[in-house]
Amino acid sequence: MSPPQKAPPAEPPLRTIALLAMAAFAGALNIRISDPLLAQVAVGFSTTVGTAAAIVTAFTVGYGLFQLAFGPTGDRFGKYRVAGVLSLAAGLATISAAFAATLGQLTLARFAAGAASSAVIPLAFAWIGDAIPFERRQAVLARFLTAQFTGIVLSQAAGGYIGAEFGWRTVFVIVGTVHVLAGLAMLTELKLNPGAQPASAPGANSFGAMITGARLILRRPFVRVMLVAVFLECFAMYGAFSYVGADLVHRLDASFAVSGLVLAVFGVGALSYSLSARWLLSRFGERGLVALGGGIIAAAFVLLAVAPRVSFAIPAMILLGLGFYMFHNTLQTNATQMAPEARGLGVSLFAFSLFIGQSIGVALAAPIVDRFGAPPIYLAAAILMPLTAIWFRHRLAMRDPV
């Protein structure tokens, strides 16, 4: 007689997943909310856009650095619980930014918000990897991508519009409130449904084991390739993209509200990728998406650099959203499988490299933007992005020979 087969673990209810998506949505709002506000913050504190961009750098530095702490913490204490606590803390830090009396205080508040929100989205992806069977995981991840894209769209459009109508401080209060509500809802869900938190992975119960796990992960050659690739991708992409809103205001005479709406079109390109991802992947494959995405991004940045009017920026932003997620989603998909035995740690290392690259890119671009404007930065990104794509495509081919 054959032994009885073990029943598969019950999947979490839709409500549990929806609340996690709400936290991911809040995290996506927070990540890019400062971009459409840079010109307003610069005026408010009587400084330059490049100096005001310290709030972008501070957020991304905090976001990147604390990946290394909160990812393993999620592996040890529960990804859903840690994500809920961090969403609540990120909301309080974001709201505090609204009461900053100086640019220094605002920068510190944004650093704290970045640190607190750093692992919400990575832990959401890692939690899905733990809780959802592989055959259903792609569909659930697609919904989370939609939540992120929606957050990006609203952060750019609503950030620019609300900032213009009610001031940039109001924007931080609204984003912080969404974070707080998501965190409280998730922590309440854990009490109502303890099964929302799958058991920790074996070996995840000591920080010594986590450090050992990080060393083992980093010994894998393709993991190192991915970390370098996402660093270069976000160094080039966001080092230029973060200044688009201010450039539209200062060089092309757009209002704050129009600038925010144009930035939001980036999300249209991202959503178009989400809707066509299955067809694009079957048509071009991973390597084709990477190469095509790099080329599209280059064309978009060139168009932004030579744009004589704001209307030219609209197709450029659509192309940026489409091209970036062709490239980035290939990296993101591989990141969820870098270390299945310590998925929180693996995704955190990926996100750490992503946001450190972004932080350095924004900081190095700041003095150039203040002196020469944004077009030189756009052109530099138009060169670096396709070069990075070609290199990563080559490494994909070495990993998976035809």
Low-confidence residue ranges? 1-8
| Helix-strand topology string | HHHHHHHHHHHHHHHHH
Number of strands: 0
Number of helical segments? 17
Relevant CATH superfamily = MFS general substrate transporter like domains
Distance between the termini: 45 Å
Class derived from helix and strand content: mainly alpha
CATH T-level topology? Growth Hormone, Chain: A
Q: Mind telling me which CATH architecture this is?
A: Up-down Bundle
Radius of gyration, whole Å: 21 Å
What number is the mean pLDDT?
83
Percent helix range = over 70%
* Global morphology: globular
Q: Give the CATH level 1 class.
A: Mainly Alpha
Characterize the biggest β-sheet.
Answer: none
Number of domains: 1
Strand content: under 5%
Task: Report on the architecture of this protein.
The chain is globular and about 55 Å long. Helix 6 runs antiparallel to helix 7. By secondary structure, the protein is mainly alpha-helical. It contains 17 helices and no strands.
Short characterization:
The chain is mainly alpha-helical. The protein has helices at about 15-30, 40-45, 50, 55-65, 65-75, 80-95, 105-115, 120-130, 135-165, 170-190, 205-220, 220-240, 245-250, 255-305, 315-335, 345-370, 375-400.
Keywords, please?
Growth Hormone, Chain: A; disordered N terminus; 0% strand; 81% helix; 402 residues; mainly alpha; single chain
Q: Which helices and strands, and how do they pair?
A:
Blueprint lengths: L13 H19 L5 H7 L4 H4 L1 H12 L1 H11 L1 H19 L5 H15 L2 H12 L2 H33 L1 H25 L14 H12 L2 H21 L2 H7 L5 H51 L6 H23 L7 H30 L2 H25 L3
